[in-house]
Each structure stands twice: as C-alpha cells, then as structure tokens.
Design goal:
22 strands; 492 residues; alpha/beta; 13-stranded parallel β-sheet; four-stranded parallel β-sheet
Length: 492
Amino acid sequence: MKEVSPLIQKLKHLKYLDLSDNWMIKALPNSVTNLVNLQVLKLNGCYRLEELPRDVGKLINLRHLDLCMNLEYMPRGIGKLTSLQTLSCFVVAKKKSSKSEMIGGLDELRMLNELRGSLEIRVKGYEGGSCVSEFEGAKLIDKDYLQSLTVRWDPELDSDSDIDLYDKMLQSLRPNSNLQELRVEGYGGMRFPSWVLELSNLLRIRVERCRRLKHIPPLDGIPSLEELSIEGLDDLEYIDSEGVGGKGVSTFFPSLKRLEMWDCGGLKGWWKRWSRDEMNDDRDESTIEEGLRMLCFPRLSSLKIRYCPNLTSMPLFPTLDEDLYLWGTSSMPLQQTMKMTSPVSSSSFIRPLSKLKRLYIGSIDDMESVPEVWLQNLSSLQQLSIYECPRLKSLPLPDQGMHSLQKLHIADCRELKSLSESESQGMIPYLPSLQQLIIEDCSEEVSGRARGWGKEREEEWPNIKHIPDIGIDGDYIQKEGRYVKGEGLKYP
C-alpha cells in the first residue's frame, strides 16, 4: 500500500489494524485517530513512515502500538494513551524546528505505567538545557511490568562537549528493578550509571559502541545475570576498574552463562589488581597466576572474544560446554585456564574445558603451538577450527585419539608442520567420529599428509559412508565413499 484512505474512520468499531511491512506508506491520515475503539495498531516495517498522526492521543483504548524506528519524533499527546501495554520505541528529537509544537518529549512516558515487554528509546536529538528534566520525567522506575529496555543514541550526535550531559541523561533513566534486559548503544559518557547494580532480576546486559566509557560498575554481584556482551568500547581498560578481585565462587557471576567481548582495543584485563601492567616489580609471574586462579566463572557455557588484542588476563573459564571463540586476541586467557590443576583437597576436580563442544581460534599471533595435554583435556570437543595463526607450528592431535571430534578445519597456518607426534611412523590419529576435514593454505607437509589421510580414511574411519562432500586442501573430495579429484573445496 502507498496510502491509507481517510475513509477508514468509518470503521468505528475496529479494534485491530495491522499495516506492518507497507514500506511505501509515508504518512497516516489524521482520521485514523477517530477509531476510538482501536486496541492494536501495527506499523513495524513501514520504513518510510516518518511521523504519527498529530491527534494520536485520541486513541484512548489503544493497548499495543508497534512502530518503525525511522520515525522523526513522537507526537505531543501520546502520553494520554494510558492503556498502552506495548510501545516498541520512543523517538527523542530536538524541538527547535518548524514542528516544535507537535513534538512530544520523553516525559510523555510519565503516566504510561502499563507498559510491558520491550521499549527502545532512540535519541535522535536533544535540547541541552531541558533534556535531563524530560528524561527524569519519563519515570521508568514506575514501569513495573517493563522487561527489556534499550537506550540508543544516533552516531551523528556524538560530541566531546556533552560528556557530562550524557552521564546525566542515562542516570535519569533508572528503570524498575523488575527489568530483565538492558541494552545501551552509542552512549557518549565515561561512566555507567550505578543503578544497574540494583537491577536484581537482570538476565542480560549489552553495551555497544560507547567509545568513551571507562568505568563499568562491578556487575559480578547481580545474582541473576546470565548474558553479558560488550562491544566497541575503545577506552575501556578493565571490566571492573574499581573492584579488588579475589571474590568467592558463590558471589562472582553466580548465573553467568554467556560472555562476549568484541572490538575493545584498549581492554587489558578484568581487574587492575591482577593485571600485569599494574603489578609492582617485586611481584612475580606465579603471584599473578595464583591471583587469577581465585577468579573463576562458575557456570559459564559460552565465551566469545574478538579483536581484543591487549586482553592478557581475565577470570578462568573451565566450565565452558558450548563455544570458545577467540579471534584477534591474545592466547594468554586460554593458557591460564588450561593450566588449572586440581586442588590437593578436591576430589571432584574436572579437567578444564573437558566439556567444551566447539573451539574456534583465529588471528592469534602469539600462539606457536598447542600442547598435546590441552587436546587430551578436550574430550567432548566436536569441532576444532583454527584460522590465520601465522606462528603456529605444531598441533599434536593425541595418539589415543579425540573420540568426539566431528569437524576439523585448519586454514592459513603456513608454518604448521605437524598434526600428530606419530606421523613419522605413518600413524593416523584416531578420530572415529570425524565427518569434515578441511585443510587449506597450510604447509606442504601438512597438506600432503592430509591427502594421505583422505585416501586411507575409508578403512581407518568407519563413518566414511555417512559423510557428505568433504574438501581436503582443495584437491580431493569424497564421493560415494571414495576420494576423487575435485575442483576446490566442497562444503557439506
């Protein structure tokens, strides 16, 4: 549809109006606001729609309003819709324009205390003198049923002169303690608000593209937190720069299952106390290692770190049972975890990463070898992928085999010479579950042996007849249980 007829006002008993995904619609007729019995209005996916009807406040029975993010502003009077339970987004705009009398501020949310589900506040503009009072006027703390809150500033608003204003804006948006998910994007302040520690029911926190952020409160004390993601925090050096570390397992992220850290070029570690940069000269490496052993994620299942090259120390993560993804970072966190040993008094010690299913390693410059004892620990590993590690020379798959390994991918490791300590005797590592073997752009020694593995595989590995096409160094593909010459890699 390109437009909605003004005659729609004749449908006086209409309760449900779905106009979603009509991306040609640029405006709605004001006559829509005469549908006083309307309870649901869906406008998500209407990407050209820039404004709502000026008299939207007349829709007093409206309970659900789904909007597109491309709106330029919210109309004054939307705060009269006190029955609203769903308001997908609220756009904050500057009022100094030809439409200033039509633009509603964030304080329009004051009386909308029935809101539940998700709310995104998108800041497209603000008035330096009055925006803080309008943000405070939103009274998010009174929204008992709100489950998810996203606060997003548009990138073009970023200004070095408004750092203090950013701090005040976000501090003013303190939500109710029932909130379960918080996402902050494009925030230009240096500190995260302290009220986040009072959100005792919080399950997920995501902080993105906050380039000046230097301080995050100690989130480890939030008992319910299951997912933490930080991305694009250029100035952040420590996750918790104020904490002292050394907390017990019962109080350190007791529920955290997923952790992601992406594109944080300045990130050095978790706590200053156990950072190598902050240590005095009289503290040796063993002191640091001992301190790090005290910091352990008790329930972490998935860890993803990408482009954090200076991150050399963090709490240990031996309990991972899903994914470990390390790309463009240091191998030190992995080394520290794999060095964990059983305490003398412990009879229930589980070898680190013995439950891990998928390991992805890429663009790690400081890793020259993977000790065989590490690979022996990875007894549940189903996929091992290693890419672009220019100094990697040895990947000694254990002779006793890796019984769970289904996929082995190695690419662009040109110094890699060996995949098995017993290759010189012609032995092949025992990989009975292997379904994919892809070796690409490595040394000729490894590529040649891989071709040999492929030719002998039908006899050595019983799963051969259950495998789809497999590429080996771009030369051989498996077809109908046999290896034949092919053209490039074939991926299942």
